[in-house]
Amino acid sequence: MKPLLSLGLAVGLGFTTLLAGCSGGSEKVRIGEVTRSLFYAPEYVAIEQGFFKEQGLDVELTTTWGGDKTMTALLSDGIDVALVGSETSIYVDQEGGTDTVINFAQLTQTDGTFLFARSTQGDFSWDQLKGTVFLGQRKGGMPQMVGEYVLKQHQIDPHQDLQLLQNIDFANVAPAFASGTGEFVQLFEPQASQFEQEGLGKVVASFGTESGKVPYTVFMAKQSYIEKNQETIQKFTNAIYQAQQWVTSHSPAETAKVIAPYFKEIKMDILESSIKRYLEQGSYASDPILEEEEWNRLQDIMDEAGELKQRADYNKLVNTTFAKTAMEGR
């Protein structure tokens, strides 16, 4: 079980906040996203294209930088809705929380990381990882759990067959690789594309493709909030579904142009190539429904990583009512 931060810390987390869709008569909804990532493109499209505003919602977007901090903010009412991996809701349930955290709208449906190799010579095979130094991600987080799951699917023991480094902070993994540490690294976009452009190596495999569909990033809220604000949650889900449909029906270049204000330090061609890569492997969910099969695969991955005390009840932690209503256009 992953321990959550003390609820008293929520006040001093130092959030990065963006106000969007402000309107005097709108209802305010505070979103906390676990990180700023173009992996969450539909969220930014919903803001920039005015889909939240059309639903009468005034969205305040905060980047909460980490699963524990995001869940702390949600549980202490620092935010209303969290965008974070579904595993966090399971961790809270395992701790015996009294106010259940409910997954109500899925945003991404695959892992978002890629296996990046320093050497670009010859065809890639998974056996090449044996005996190498591999920069992984934080223990207990979805990237690391998926990474280990995929390695095991290819008959590689991540703790015996290679030197797995997972004591480096998320923000420092890419710089560590760039400075010469490791032969392989697990990277999100746009870092993978940027490193390719800089000649540091190449993407040789996709953990998202290898692991299959999982509820990787989902909008969730406390049961008490949902019960008191059902109309708000429905409007929120309607806007997300509209954005998901927009992204799947527009080119990577069009999506890149819309979300560019959120990634001012990234070149447009890198934004486009990264979005294209995610679209091609189906990372952006085309609708907000979290399917039970995906939920079960998530738990298989968590169980394999030794992070699951007991199976979490899909019907307890997932509510697809709002997603289905949004898709029906009601």
Automatic annotation (TrEMBL):
The keyword Ribonucleoprotein does not apply. It comes from the Bacteria. Transmembrane segments: none annotated. Gene3D superfamilies: Periplasmic binding protein-like II. It is found in: Periplasm. The keyword Signal applies. One of its GO terms (cellular component) is periplasmic space. Pfam families: NMT1_2. Keywords: Signal. Belongs to the bacterial solute-binding protein SsuA/TauA family. This is NitT/TauT family transport system substrate-binding protein. It comes from Brevibacillus fulvus.
